[in-house]
Design brief:
globular; Leucine-rich repeat, LRR (right-handed beta-alpha superhelix); LRMDA; 6-stranded mixed beta sheet; LRMDA protein; alpha/beta; 139 residues; LRR_dom_sf
């Protein structure tokens, strides 16, 4: 397990057998680039600066799908990308569920997203409609 407070993730490439990585509270954004970590199964990015601006979160999720193929647990709580009614009063459970479908559509191997286990029904819904569930704010 690695607990990292960082300005750069450059040194992570030397830990190719890393299985768990906690990057909470690091001001990381959608431009986050991880090296290939084929054994990483747990990644927490809580309380960073990840958002659903334009297509940048889609790009981040595509990047994670490529570089951490074994990822089973991801937590994005406390980021703008994770619409949570406890953090933002304008968000509700429907917003959060749409976010889950979108993330599960991109990261098909996840067993847990944030604090909740991924259900079979969610996985099926994500497969069918996940690409269209990105939560966006009207301009």
């Amino acid at each position: 397990v690695a607990f990292v407070v960082c300005r750069s993730l450059e040194g992570l490439k030397t830990f190719s057998y890393l299985e768990e990585l906690i990057l909470d509270n690091n001001r990381l954004g959608n431009d986050l680039l991880l090296p290939r970590l084929p054994h990483l199964h747990t990644l927490t990015l809580n309380k960073n600066q990840i958002s659903f601006q334009r297509n940048t979160c889609k790009i981040l999720l595509d990047h994670l799908a490529e570089v951490v193929p074994s990822l089973q647990y991801l937590s994005l709580l406390g980021n703008m990308a994770c619409p949570n009614e406890l953090v933002c009063k304008e968000k509700d459970e429907d917003d959060y569920q749409r976010y889950r479908y979108f993330v599960l559509h991109k990261l098909t191997n996840l067993k847990f997203l944030d604090t909740r286990k991924v259900t079979r029904r969610e996985r099926e819904e994500a497969f069918v409609r996940g690409a269209f569930m990105k939560v966006v704010k009207p301009k």
